[in-house]
């Protein structure tokens, strides 16, 4: 599965799906998750929207499916140094900016929004705060920690050789093994194996494999089994957390249907003629997804708290557009200019380091 040069197509409809998932999470945080921004119970602010918005947390599950697909696509044909450079330069510039902006908001502009410390904010810059049992300054960061662990797993595959057989073995064995070891009730093992996210990432991995072999029955069967695991894990863990956050019951059947619909949609967008659609506006929205996800929660709540006198729908529109504008600024002034530079710099230095170690090894042999 390695080649000197690999063309990585841009799937415009998957970009659009990513943005739609981010929008669903935004609507969930603004109109379904309990918060102080409105000054009254959130389910009373939008009684007509609430029954639908409370399922917006599933946008995160969709992110994980897409990541399984996109990260394997990104890893194909790349050497370890190039993969690390690609992931670090993709994650950290916007993340550091998001941490800085949210820290500024909560430390100076809106301390009532959440009680955080400078030390906590500084440790959050590493994205390793969970290792030290330090809370995230923004709740959405937990998903980035899951993504980071998935990157390490893929990096390990690249080290040993990213073959179809190994990738398929990972996608088939990871979810059931994670579910099995989950019964030990060990935080350490769950941190390593990620039982709730494993089937979602694996669904994306299998869709990646289906791009190469769309008529492979084993792959389709594995995708279906992973969907079952995803439904089981999401209803057993993530849904319960969302019920607590919304103070409302969620239908496990709807959760299953949404996950199934997401899987089918991503298959259609990656495996059919729909994959050939090219639209600059879809790609642009896809590029805004990550920074929007990073900053929407607390900045959005702050905007809403200052718009309590406005009609609720107008306040929601202004806060949403404000977060999108902030996301665009992060992309335009941070990600776009500094991401490629960081990637090139890291790739060069990591490649030099690898070459030096190989030379020293040969000298000592």
TrEMBL record:
User: Endoplasmic reticulum among the record's keywords?
Assistant: no
Report domain Acyltransferase positions.
14-331
User: Which interval of the chain is the signal sequence?
Assistant: none
The molecular function terms in GO held by this entry are: acyltransferase activity, transferring groups other than amino-acyl groups
A Gene Ontology BP annotation from the UniProt entry: lipopolysaccharide biosynthetic process
**Transmembrane stretches, by residue range?**
12-32, 52-73, 94-113, 140-160, 167-185, 191-210, 217-233, 253-272, 279-301, 313-334
GO-annotated cellular components: membrane
Q: Which domain of life is it from?
A: Bacteria
InterPro entries annotated for this entry? Acyl_transf_3_dom, Acyltransferase_3
Q: Which UniProt keywords apply?
A: Membrane, Transmembrane, Transmembrane helix
Q: What is this protein called?
A: Peptidoglycan/LPS O-acetylase OafA/YrhL
Q: Which source organism?
A: Paramicrobacterium agarici
